[in-house]
Amino acid sequence: MLQVLGTLVLGIVSIFTIFTTDSCGTSTSATVPAVCDSDYFGGVLIGYWISLVVLVVVTLIAIIVATARSAAVWPWSVGGVVLTFVATIVFFVLISR
């Protein structure tokens, strides 16, 4: 449940990455931040949201299967959190290029 809540928070916070720069300028050049390119930003943002949803669904399914088999659940929980953290780092790296 904590991962679902964390994913929702990350999804909402990711919308505000558009404000990571103070100005987008008026010209398109190599120095314009990635958040100013609406096509690129939109693609990365939607891709990030999709990866968050996939991670939550896969982690929850893995936890349910592990519980049904009486196996340890914590590796799946920790794995889901770690992969969510990695996806968030990749998202911010792509946005800050």
What keywords describe this structure?
single chain, 97 residues, mainly alpha, 3 helices, 0% strand, elongated
Number of helices: 3
Number of domains: 1
Mean pLDDT: 82
Quaternary organisation: single chain
- Structure classification: mainly alpha
Distance between the termini: 33 Å
- The count of strands amounts to 0
Query: Level of helix content?
Result: 55-70%
Low-confidence stretches: none
SSE order, one letter for each helix or strand: HHH
Largest sheet at a glance? Answer: none
- As a whole number of angstroms, the C-alpha radius of gyration is 17 Å
Shape: elongated
Strand content: under 5%
Summarize the structure.
By secondary structure, the protein is mainly α. The chain has helices spanning 2-15, 38-68, 74-95.
Structure, explained:
The chain has 97 residues and is mainly α. It has one domain (2-16, 35-95). The chain is 69% helix and 0% strand. The chain contains three helices and no strands. Helix 1 (2-15) packs antiparallel against helix 2 and helix 2 runs antiparallel to helix 3. It is elongated.
How are the SSEs placed, and which strands pair?
Layout: H1 2-15, H2 38-68, H3 74-95
Helix pairs in contact: 1-2, 2-3
